[in-house]
Amino acid sequence: MLHCVFNEAERNNKKELGLTLTTERKLFYREMIARFGHHNAILWNLCEEYNLNINLGPENVRAFARYIHETDPYDHPVTVHHSSDPFVMLKPFIGDELFSVTSIQIGRRDIEPVVERFRRLTREAGRPIPIAVDEFTVTTHDKPWLPEDDIKALRVEKLWPAYLSGGQLEFIVGDLLKTENFAKYEDLWRYIWYARKFLEENVPFWEMEPADDLLEGESVYKGKTSTHDGQVFAKPGQCYALYFPSARKTGTLDLTDSRGRFQKRWYNPRSGQFVGSGASVKGGGKIIIGSPAEDAEKDWALLLKRM
Questions:
Q1: Going by CATH, does the domain composed of 207-306 fall within 1.10.357?
Q2: Mean pLDDT of 73-96
Q3: Got the DSSP string for 231-244?
């Protein structure tokens, strides 16, 4: 998807087109739609950090979104980005039919509860939408807004927790303004594909829900910026995708309401491959998950599917 951001947070950038739906702003939107709207997958983002430096305000943001919807013949999704607390700053847009996806900034916060809470809030508002997190870091220095290219931490603390919470994410890399060499991010691109492949090729992820309360007794992983335990993403009775930041201790999975037999397969998120031939487990109660055959101290995913 091509993510097109119309404004930056800086004061001069916001003021250039005027702070309301001015003629200049309308012309700019029309030009962008005419120039790029033919793309099959494009997201119009009204402003990066709409409330920072100069707060554009929810009413102006809605007016911008409404004009784009009226002008764009392709009906592409519209969103807006924020600064500070996402639950406060995006609250005015939850449930609003003008907005079709989130654009969330969390800094060093734990990504899992943010995604799951927004899923719940948008559903309760009567308009469940994709929950996208597009600005986050795993930095430990005194400037948490600056990204840090710790590929392992991004995989363990952001990528898999977001996906198995039912969200999506974009990465801001450390050299975000330098495009001479993307090769150093090859491992990150590969890990993203491994996580996507696990879901896209094995489970109906669009029908699944977070179900972490089914898992208990697993290891707690202390990451760089947050702590994580195991996660469960489930279509109850049919399939369960689990992720362990550390598989030293995996605990039990409650399948009391899911009778029958399930195939259990370990998936290595570092290689993108299933490991071993799998095993059959019986539902109808709590099952002991056990450990992968190797490297149990590292992160692992587990797939259970009804046989």
A1: no
A2: 97
A3: EEEEETTTEEEEEE
